[in-house]
Structure formats: C-alpha cells, structure tokens
Prior knowledge:
Two copies of one chain form a homodimer.
Chain A: H1 6-19, H2 26-37, H3 44-54, H4 60-72, E1 77-79, E2 87-89, E3 95-100, E4 106-110, E5 123-134, H5 136-141
Parallel strand pairs in A: 3-5
Antiparallel strand pairs in A: 1-2, 3-4
Chain A binds a DNA duplex (30 and 30 nucleotides) through residues 22-23, 25, 27-28, 43-45, 57-62, 64-65, 83-86.
Amino acid sequence: MKARSHQQDEQHLTEQLGATGLRLTPQRQQVYDVLLHKRDHPTAEEVFIRAKKTMPEISHATVYNCLDALVKSGLARQVTLDRGATRFCPNMHEHGHFHCDTCGTVFDVDLPAQTMPLPKGFQAEHFDIAIHGTCPDCASRK
Amino acid sequence: MKARSHQQDEQHLTEQLGATGLRLTPQRQQVYDVLLHKRDHPTAEEVFIRAKKTMPEISHATVYNCLDALVKSGLARQVTLDRGATRFCPNMHEHGHFHCDTCGTVFDVDLPAQTMPLPKGFQAEHFDIAIHGTCPDCASRK
DNA sequence: GTCAAGATTTAGAACAATTCTAAATTACAA
DNA sequence: TTGTAATTTAGAATTGTTCTAAATCTTGAC
C-alpha cells in the first residue's frame, strides 16, 4: 500500500468530496486525518476525542456530519459489529473485519477475490463481511 | 425447508436453551414464536410490540433478555446493518443478508459454500455477510 | 408436599449513541 | 459586495439498550 503525502491526501479529499457535492472544510480534513492517523476502527466518540486534541472547538454533531460526509464520498467505511457504537475505517480496499470477541480488537482482513452470486434482480452496491472469533494473541494466551 | 410442528418447535427450544443452562419460559416461547411467525427481521422494539398482542404484560427488558437467550442458545441470530437498531432472524442456516437501501427490506440470501481464508492464528467463530443494494422490486420501479 | 436458592420477569430509571434544532459562521457565485 | 446555500456549533431531544431492585416463578433437597 503506497502512502500518500499529506498534500495528495488533501487533493484526494477535495476531489472525492466535490464529486458528492460537498466542500472540504477544516473539520472534515481534521476528522479524516484522525482516521488516517490511527487505523484502529474508532467509534464516532473516539474520533471526537482525538479530533478535539488539535481542534478543541469541534463539536459532536460536526464529527457525525464529517464522518457521514466521508462515508458518502467513498473516503471511509462504516463498520457495524454487534449492538455497540458504529466504527469507522479509512481503508477502502475490499476487505472484511475480524472482531476478536476476547479483546475487542478489530482487524482488517483480505478477502478472496470472488463475486457474490445473488438471486435474479438483486443489484448489489457493496457488501460487508464481519468475522467473529479469537485473534492470534488471545488464542495463544488461552 | 421442512416446517416443524409447534410441538417440535417447543422441544427444540427446550433442548437448545437447556444446553446453554437456560429455562424455557412462556416469554421466551412467545418471543421465539414472534420471530418464527413473521420472518421479516424485526427489531427488538418490533418484537416487543408483536409479543404484546398475545402477552400484554411482557416488558421491554424481558424481550431483550429473551432475544439474548435465543441468540446465546443458537436459536436466532442478530443482524446489524448500519446505525439503526439490531434486527433478529430465526434462520440458522448459513446465509447472508441483503438490505435494500431503497425500501429497507432485509432479505436472506444463500451463500456459496466456501471457507473464509484467514491469516495464521485467527480462529473464526462465525461470520456475517451484509450486502447493500437495490432489491428487484425497487430496481424495476426505477 | 414444603421450602430455600437461584433464575426470571417487571416497571421504570439510567445510560449510550445518534439525530435534530435554531442560531451563528463561512464559502461561493453572481 | 451581497445574497444564497452549506456548514458548524451547543445543547436539547430522541432512540436503542442496559441496569436495578423488588416481585414472581422453578427446581431440587428434604
């Protein structure tokens, strides 16, 4: 995976947001930076806390707004596991999520290239795969 | 899919709950009946409303308790899509969920028989596949 | 059968996650 | 500029879920 420069990130952001009719604002930039900086699938609340460190005036509602904007523009994905808060992930490559039921960590996992056969007439937009189990660390610790 | 008789359902319930150290109670039976009766992936709230029709004294907390008991005993699955309420599904065959982004309906879809290859050390318990898109009805209506 | 121990249910409060509201600010385009 | 629309903000409101303590029900030991 090639790392993008900060400037490239910004251009990418502007383009992707623009294509969805949205503007690049300092808040959206900041929220996206937070996602890129630590890719541990944070919840909206966690993004809020991290974003506040460098932008103390940012509000809760804005974080939700920004996250929605990023998702709509194809810059981030929502990850919903169980009944808890939704998590966010800036990795847009096709991948699934492995959730360790012991320690709670969420891992990105590559998926076998394949198409999902659907009954006639169904048009798939995208799909999410969530795998529950035990991660290597927790498995060996048992 | 073979339909089970009511009596068989009850026996199945007792066995599965018992194996998890749980009792079969009228409430759990009722909640399970609700799930079996209309397999449209209702939320806990919807299950609550439906269960009340024949058991008016049932409480909110009990519905959550019963649904958890059913999930723990392998009699139902939780379905989490997006940020909304969790849905419940009594279909325990391996299948995925297709969510129509237009009308909101959730469909069970069969999956190709296959194993999910995981990096070394990861132990999968089970996995959930959620597909987003447009259902045949909504697609033709466009 | 009777009783104690533990499981379950209940109403309602509490909590957590998300959305809404209305006012203030900002950006863009004419 | 100047008007229009988008965005942000604080805080209230809403929604979904969990917790609590008391009441009720089951079950197994006697």
